[in-house]
Amino acid sequence: MAHMSMGAGVPSLPTLQNYYWAVICTLIGCATVVNLYNQALYRQRISAVTSGRLYPSKPKTLLPRTIATIYALGREISYASFRLNVQSERSPPKSRLLLTWRSPTLGRALMVIAELILVLVLCFYGLDPKDQWQWESIGYRTGYIATAQLPLVVLLAGKRNIIAWFIGSSYERLNWLHRWIARILFLTVTIHMGFWFTNWARYDYIKIQLATNPIVQRGFAAWFILLWIVLSSLAPIRRWNYELFVIQHIITFVGFFVAVYLHLPAELKIWVWVPVAFFLFDRVFRACATLVVNVSLLNKPPTTLAPKATFEPLSANTTRITISNPRFKWEAGQHVFLSCHGLAPLQAHPFTIASLPADGKLDFLVKSKSGSTRKFFRHAEESRGLPSASSNKCHDRSVILEGPYGRIRPLRQFDSVFFIAGSSGATFTVPLMRDIVSNWMVNTQGRFDTSNPLMPSSQCAATRFIRFV
């Protein structure tokens, strides 16, 4: 089957799978080169600060200026989007707006369109969908191309994301791409099934295949499970009950891969084992990292207990969660997944770290909305009373931390930084601003580490202007 003829001059099915990954790896490689360039640029700018240059972030020669201009234009174009407002002329002026829809950014849209074009070209190259004698060949081809997409879907789903590590990003910035690749996978699988059904329909053979052929039954089960995964991953359902979504998502993920494994021929089963290996690597790595963060045998006295957190009620239904002497380092702007099973069993939510490592503690400012955040605030009020009654002592609770996660380019390398945040969004921007200011203080005191010119100290800042809104 793998080497069946697809026509004169058309590559074999495994070769088309290799073409798919050749394109994907090339794109990842290009993004990795950009990431390496950004890191080198960061070191160059910090090195310029330590050498006393007045404008360390400003390009001096033609080539850096050209690259900086291309970067700026690329960012402006890729972030472009438009908003569509649907109004009713019959309603009063203040209530005419019925629906507001904002399009994805142009950069994201182009990435999804490029992936879709790549998949469709590989599925139909050298084949005529109008020729009924080629429907079976299209069925085989689309099955092979769908199988080749499985590792990418799983790679983009992991929190310890290998792709994100290469390109200098983080899992939360790639999660949208994971969902869209999965949707394109579903489209490919639907085309695969549709051409087989269309081919069988000529002989009224669909019901017989579904009733008697185990391979067809397993394939149909895989398609149905994938349909459910795609539908249940839509934003309204995820927001309705995220914990339930995660549980059912993992269960259906396992069911889908079992059905796919039983559906595929022997030569294609490796395309199931590879994503399963990626999934297990992510889970094992996360479990080990969580143990390191939460369990310590080096304390005096030794302890294996989880970190203790205090819950303090603040105004505007906000809870301050504080963990003293954390067992890991983090950077400004990062977040962790926090679980307090004594208050919210079997739940873990991401919270931005509102403090810096120099503070010697982890601070989280959590807005009370529903679910676990509301339970946190109620516990803080019950254990300490009203916010004004500060004489009562808080009751510590054991928590489990996973992380830290999140990665952005160091902001202290830029000449001007503009922060915009509202409400609890300040828990992200305030630490970033504090990080710049604390490193800028090193500039004024002249305490630079110049022992290694190739790896200049990051404890300084090239930033000259900050605006915080």
Topology overview:
Blueprint lengths: L12 H38 L11 H17 L4 E5 L9 E6 L3 H19 L10 H14 L1 H6 L6 H6 L3 H31 L4 H7 L1 H19 L2 H6 L1 H22 L6 H25 L13 E7 L3 E7 L10 E5 L9 E4 L8 E7 L4 H13 L12 E2 L1 E6 L10 E4 L6 H20 L19 E4 L1
Parallel strand pairs: 10-11
Antiparallel strand pairs: 1-2, 3-4, 3-8, 4-7, 5-6, 5-9
Helix pairs in contact: 1-4, 3-4, 3-7, 4-7, 7-9, 8-9, 9-11
Question: What's the gyration radius in Å?
Answer: 27 Å
Broad structural category = alpha+beta
Helix content: 40-55%
Question: Which consecutive residue ranges, at least 5 long each, have pLDDT under 50?
Answer: 386-393
- SSE string: HHEEHHHHHHHHHHEEEEEHEEEHE
Order of strands, main sheet, comes to 7-4-3-8
What overall geometry do the principal axes of the alpha carbons give?
globular
Give your account of this protein's structure.
The structure is a single chain. With 469 residues, the protein is α+β, with helices and mostly antiparallel strands. The protein has 14 helices and eleven strands. It has helices spanning 13-50, 62-78, 106-124, 135-148, 150-155, 162-167, 171-201, 206-212, 214-232, 235-240, 242-263, 270-294, 372-384, 426-445, and strands at 83-87, 97-102, 308-314, 318-324, 335-339, 349-352, 361-367, 397-398, 400-405, 416-419, 465-468. The strands form four sheets. It has a four-stranded antiparallel sheet with strand order 7-4-3-8. It has a three-stranded antiparallel sheet with strand order 6-5-9. Helix 14 links the parallel strand 10 (416-419) and strand 11. Helix 3 (106-124) packs parallel to helix 7, helix 4 (135-148) runs antiparallel to helix 7 (171-201) and helix 8 crosses helix 9. The radius of gyration is 27 Å and the shape is globular. It starts with 12 loop residues before the first helix and ends with a strand. The model is unreliable at 386-393 (pLDDT under 50).
